[in-house]
């Protein structure tokens, strides 16, 4: 069973730009709207019966430009830090994935579907599939060719969700000088968890932050902006099957 997660902020992907060699500029998701390439969904959560049990899914790639583009796929493992920064590495040996195609062409104003089957020797597991779009006629002002790289993230999860008692709010701290609330959540259990929404509020105002994952035996910190005149007093984290509530403390510099 697959749970398709819409565009949740800060799965951890941050826009980046790298120069490849001397003649190619690799443009990450920050250029997506301008160039007209998209991937759907961004995140695919597959619930499987156990280690070694496969999941099947499909990824849709859209080319809204007027050019035929070449696309190549690459699967990578990744680690997310407690502040949401990612580090990538070659796909772990414990993760096994097959795609219907690893390279293909997408015609102008057309969509293209790629199908996959994946399983892992241990659960939960996760990896990202990067699609690199090439063949653009445009170049940068410096003369570099443009390539666009879009991520699709796949999770292989057991039926057991994270339990409420496994999640602990370690920090819920309002910093008036910075106009933000620092929230740090610890997952003390072996299951993957996803906060769907984080909200801080006072008697009159509230501010929300999009969803974020909390990986097994790890902590995750997020920042929630607070522009209201009064101070926030409460925090609520909403997950699929329960909510966590915590008071917010104010920190004076």
Describe the fold and architecture:
The chain is mostly beta strands. It folds into two domains: 156 residues, Immunoglobulins (Immunoglobulin-like), CATH 2.60.40.10; 87 residues, Macroglobulin (MG2) domain (Immunoglobulin-like), CATH 2.60.40. It contains one helix and 21 strands. The strands form four sheets. Strands 1, 2, 3, 5, 7, 8, 10, 12 and 13 form a nine-stranded mixed sheet that branches. It has a four-stranded antiparallel sheet with strand order 4-6-11-9. β2 and β3 form a beta hairpin. The longest helix has 4 residues. The protein is globular and about 55 Å long. The N and C termini lie far apart (49 Å).
Order of helices and strands: EEEHEEEEEEEEEEEEEEEEEE
C-alpha Rg (nearest Å): 20 Å
What's the number of helices?
A: 1
User: Which range best describes the helical content: under 10%, 10-25%, 25-40%, 40-55%, 55-70% or over 70%?
Assistant: under 10%
- Contiguous low-pLDDT stretches (5 residues minimum) are 1-25, 28-34
Label the overall shape: globular
Average pLDDT for all residues: 88
CATH architecture of the largest domain: Sandwich
Structural class: mainly beta
CATH level-3 fold name of the largest domain? Immunoglobulin-like
